[in-house]
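To: structure desk
From: M.T.
Subject: fold request, one chain
Message: Could you run this one when you get a chance? Sequence is below, nothing fancy, just the single chain.
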Amino acid sequence: MDSKCIKFYNFGSPQDVLKVENKGIEPPNDNEVLVRMLARPINPSDLIPIRGSYSHRISLPNIPGYEGVGIVEDVGHLVSHHLIGKRVLPLRGEGTWQEFVKTSAEFTVSIPDSIDDFTASQMYINPITAWVTCTEVLNLRPNNVLLVNACGSSIGHIFAQLSKVLGFRLIAVTRNDKYTEDLLHLGASYVIDTSKDSLYETVMELTNGMGVDAAIDSVGGSSGNDLAFCVHPNGNFLTIGLLSGIQVNWADIVNKAKVNANIFHLRNWNKNVSVNKWQETFSHLIRLIDDQKLHLMMVDSKYDLSDVKKAIGVVETSKITKGKVFLTSY
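Reply: Done. Structure tokens follow.
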């Protein structure tokens, strides 16, 4: 039996290099599950590797997609048959932009019926990154002040909600005023629109000249450096993304801003975390979603997996979408 998959053989613009192909479905190995996919969000983190940003660690040809939700169709000899028919996130295995995905049973996350497919499919990259950076890496305490850029993004909306859950104060940075009301409603203490206000001056005004305790950068380049100089000496600067494609000036951040600077890669956390801790972290997020304390992005639009180029066109050309664009296999 064949199934559809999205594949690229060269790095480049997703519109140019992605191909819709058929592939055979192989049975799961001893400790694996085979999952029939239902829905996958399109994230920047899915598209950046296709363009070749991480070409040193991505082998070609490659099937993209880091997250999504589906139904367990088959299990290996060492896996409980009770998993068959269950809805799960099949993570850290094959790329999710295909109809059937295999992964290790220990890295599947069971999803309760209370959470819909489109929310479930977004529960990995952004929520886990936000939760781990706030609770483990920065170890934020009530009333700590956190500064985060690119807050109009999915993860920016999550940081705003976590500020309310964990009790820290969030100063959200955006490049326009489109998300100001949303971010304040979700939990941000203040939103700085850098098209109107000076970042440094506004932060100093809000912190009585002290600077913030920590900053999280998703952009890189000069935007990341500007953020670092708003952190008080010996505070923490963390980079989690590179939306601009340009590295920050690490020498300036360490030597002139005099902050503790680090990079957070989810894949490194994955490597070092125990399976129990991994599952426990998802349990926290499931509880927050069930308790209505964490809301992920709404559905902007849905496209069949084979319409991947049309879907990416919407992601890349929309100045502002109402939510996430999804690839579906219903």
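Reply (cont.): The domain at 129-267 is CATH 3.40.50.720 (Rossmann fold). Let me know if you need anything else for the meeting.
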